């Protein structure tokens, strides 16, 4: 009898990570259903609904959509209960996934594995107590996370980051001097917050550069409609090959903190991290945050090796000034990449997908 697996992913990055892992699974012995996106669809897994329906940004965004979120949680839990999986495998999006898992486990007996650990080391550490009750095993991206989950006796294993499988970190500095990558975010709320700032930055530094904007299927049309009204050259990329090529060819990148930062690091492009939310969200969250940085590379390093301009420092003048400084100094750009490559070595080339699949097959 086939084992059943119910996959829950939040937004595009979780969908991508899940597809990397489950592409390694011989599905002839498994029946799979998923909350996912284009990457899991490409594996021909039945998708109950697209995970873009559960993408919200910031406390105020969640509050505004609270009844919609509750309905989706209940619907997902009910679909999972009907499916009666032997395993729920969730990727990222813990605030959604864990609520679903908690509801399901009250009704049926099933295991729950989670990949991309909640950032209890950053804020809300006491979440670990709830995690311990509902999650049977957590797979960790970064080695420093293990201390925090061991502290609460939560079953875990460090497996590294699947973005960096078979990673060659031989930096050649082969950028094109007229391309700059701009990453304002992957959610509509993030674009509304960041894009106006970055457009003004572009107008301050524009010297016949071509500005590359990585896009998702959800943001491509929106970005194109906004950017074509501007008077600078731009190019949009949507598939992974084009994104990687343009990032690798860029002289520098300016990116809102998030998963895209690791995509940029993977392609060895100099990086400046920016981050801004509404002042209300920032003031609500800031007292609970325990780390000094937002970029995961800086958090692991314990110091700012990738420059960050956060919230009140995330201004047109400060971003423009820093970008121009980097554009004028090749040595500064080279040092930026070399420094973050030293950190990436800690979680690259760890056979992540194989480790997770082997654990799953052994324990399911």
What does this structure look like?
It is a single chain. Helices cover 45% and strands 17% of the residues. With 364 residues, it is an alpha/beta fold. It has 2 domains: 176 residues, Glycogen Phosphorylase B (Rossmann fold, 3-Layer(aba) Sandwich); 166 residues, 3-Layer(aba) Sandwich (Rossmann fold), CATH 3.40.50. The strands form 2 sheets. The protein has a 7-stranded parallel β-sheet with strand order 3-2-1-4-5-6-7, with helices on both faces. The protein has a 6-stranded parallel β-sheet with strand order 10-9-8-11-12-13, sandwiched between helices. The longest helix is centred in the first third of the chain and has 18 residues.
Tag the structure with descriptive keywords.
alpha/beta, Rossmann fold, six-stranded parallel β-sheet
Short description:
This protein has two domains: 3-164 and 350-363, 3-Layer(aba) Sandwich (Rossmann fold), CATH 3.40.50.2000; 179-344, Glycogen Phosphorylase B (Rossmann fold), CATH 3.40.50.2000. 45% of the residues lie in helices and 17% in strands. The protein has helices at 11-22, 38-41, 58-64, 66-83, 94-105, 127-134, 146-151, 188-205, 220-227, 240-249, 259-266, 279-285, 296-301, 316-327, 330-344, 352-363; strands spanning 3-9, 30-36, 47-50, 87-91, 111-115, 137-140, 156-158, 179-183, 210-214, 233-237, 252-256, 271-275, 308-310.
Oligomerization = single chain
Note the run of SSEs as H and E: EHEHEHHEHEHEHEEHEHEHEHEHHEHHH
Per DSSP, the total helix count is 16
Going by CATH, the homologous superfamily of the largest domain would be: Glycogen Phosphorylase B
């Amino acid at each position: 009898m086939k084992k059943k697996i119910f996959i829950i992913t939040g937004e595009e990055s979780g969908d991508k990570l899940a597809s990397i892992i489950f592409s390694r699974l011989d599905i002839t012995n498994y029946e799979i259903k998923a909350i996912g996106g284009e990457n899991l669809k490409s594996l021909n897994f039945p998708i109950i609904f697209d995970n873009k329906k559960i993408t919200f940004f910031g406390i105020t965004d969640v509050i505004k959509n609270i009844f919609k979120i509750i309905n989706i949680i209940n619907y997902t839990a009910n679909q999972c209960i009907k499916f009666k999986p032997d395993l729920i495998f969730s990727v990222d999006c813990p605030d959604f996934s864990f609520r679903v898992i908690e509801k399901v486990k009250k009704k049926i007996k099933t295991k729950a594995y989670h990949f991309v650990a909640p950032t209890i080391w950053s804020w809300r550490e006491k979440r670990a107590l709830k995690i311990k009750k509902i999650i049977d095993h957590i797979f960790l991206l970064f080695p420093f996370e293990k201390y925090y989950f061991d502290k609460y006796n939560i079953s875990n294993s460090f497996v590294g980051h699947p973005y960096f499988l078979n990673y060659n970190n031989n930096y050649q500095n082969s950028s094109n001097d007229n391309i700059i990558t701009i990453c304002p975010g992957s959610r509509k709320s993030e674009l509304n917050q960041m894009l106006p700032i970055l457009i003004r930055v572009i107008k301050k530094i524009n010297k016949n550069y071509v500005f590359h904007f990585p896009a998702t299927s959800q943001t491509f049309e929106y970005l194109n409609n906004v950017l074509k009204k501007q008077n600078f050259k731009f190019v949009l990329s949507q598939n992974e090959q084009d994104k990687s090529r343009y990032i690798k060819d860029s002289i520098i990148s300016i990116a809102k903190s998030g998963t895209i930062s690791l995509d940029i690091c993977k392609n060895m492009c100099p990086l400046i991290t920016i981050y801004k939310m509404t002042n209300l969200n920032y003031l609500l969250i800031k007292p609970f945050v325990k780390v000094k940085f937002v970029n995961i590379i800086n958090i692991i390093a314990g110091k700012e090796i990738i420059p960050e301009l956060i919230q009140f420092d995330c201004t047109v003048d400060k971003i423009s000034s820093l970008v121009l400084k980097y554009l004028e100094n090749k040595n500064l750009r080279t040092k930026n990449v070399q420094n973050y490559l030293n950190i990436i070595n800690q979680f690259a080339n760890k056979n992540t997908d194989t480790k997770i699949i082997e654990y799953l097959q052994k324990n399911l």
